[in-house]
Design a protein that fits this description.
By secondary structure, this protein is α/β, with parallel strands linked by helices. It has eleven helices and twelve strands. The strands form two sheets. A six-stranded mixed sheet has the order 2-1-3-5-6-4, with helices on both faces. β8, α7 and β9 form a beta-alpha-beta unit. α1 packs across α10, α5 packs across α10 and α10 crosses α11. The chain is globular. The structure holds NADP nicotinamide-adenine-dinucleotide phosphate.
């Protein structure tokens, strides 16, 4: 029941009506019996800073931020977390001592999801990140902070790989498409759009399949489809695998915890994603 004391969180973006976030966060509020509600607010490109001012005016309790507002929101915040500062973008705004702080929870969400799925951290692991876009950069920064031994960054556009590799001291630029390099790492992470339904190459596999072997972990952060061509090939070759729903849920869980101070109900949030997808 919505009342005068109901707290408000929202996601801004353009477009935003397709967002999974309302389903995930409203399920989490319900599971924790919190008097909160989460809505999607379309905010046109160019109006991101105005939306931050509106958050102050309306005393909105929590904000998620998606494309194209992540950079301008980081600029409009009163302060930034380590991740948001390093990346120059923010996907989450929360209140701290009356100040609006911008966080970037994708990378830490990836790290948390990895630990939950595989029961170990990425500390001392040799990691290959495929891609150098927004998601790849957040993963490189967070995996760097959690003490990976090495991060090999490979991307179709080499100049972007160079820039992304600057986000972690142990990151180096690898060779795009090198089977030898892919075979040498413990963990392969696909953060390109290759293999995504409706994307540029839905049937593609962004790394030479013959490189993948038993003992490796392969994570594809794509969540549509759940089982990408990369994950199917990696499982066939004996690697441990995981898809992108874990990262999606764990980045939302970190925002939920920033806003409410409650531990996020991960299982309920995963169920909400499944229910949303089967509609
Ligand atoms: P982005 O910033 O647009 O980056 C796209 C990346 O994919 C770039 O590295 C790009 O290479 C590469 N790429 C695109 N088409 C390619 C092709 N045909 N061949 C080789 N490389 C190609 O996008 P993003 O936001 O980082 O998202 C990347 C993927 O991660 C998407 O599939 C998205 O759904 C997924 N994602 C998942 C989560 C989650 O929570 N699970 C969160 C964010 C994103 P160039 O630099 O050469 O163009």
């Amino acid at each position: 029941m919505i009342s005068g004391s109901t707290r408000l969180a929202a996601v801004i973006g353009d477009p935003v009506r397709h967002s999974l976030s309302p389903a995930i966060h409203n399920a989490a509020f319900a599971a924790c019996d919190l008097d909160w509600v989460y809505v999607a607010l379309p905010v046109a490109d160019g109006d991101g800073a105005k939306a931050v001012e509106a958050m102050r005016t309306f005393a909105i309790d929590g904000l998620s931020v998606t494309m194209p507002h992540k950079t301008v929101v980081a600029e409009a915040a009163d302060g930034l977390t380590v991740a948001a500062e390093a990346l120059g973008v923010s996907n989450c705004l929360f209140w701290q001592d009356g100040r609006l702080i911008g966080d970037s929870t994708d990378g830490d969400g990836f790290v948390a999801s990895y630990a939950a799925e595989f029961g170990r951290t990425l500390t001392d692991r040799r990691v290959m990140v495929l891609g150098a876009g927004g998601a790849a950069k957040s993963i490189i920064e967070a995996v760097g902070r959690c003490g990976a031994a090495e991060i090999l960054v490979t991307n179709r556009s080499a100049d972007k790989a160079e820039r992304a590799a600057m986000l972690a001291p142990q990151a180096v630029v690898g060779t795009h498409g090198s089977a030898e390099e892919a075979a040498s790492v413990d963990v392969i992470i696909n953060a390109t759009a290759v293999g995504m339904a409706g994307g540029p190459d839905p049937d593609g596999i962004p790394v030479p399949v013959e490189a993948i072997h038993d003992g490796q972990t392969v994570v594809d952060i794509i969540y549509q489809p759940v089982r990408t061509p990369l994950l199917a090939a990696a499982a066939e070759r004996g690697a441990a695998t995981d898809g992108g729903i874990g990262m999606l849920v764990h980045q939302a869980a970190l925002a939920f915890e920033r806003w409410t101070g409650h531990q996020a109900p991960i299982a309920a949030m995963i169920d909400a994603v499944a229910a949303f997808r089967s509609r």
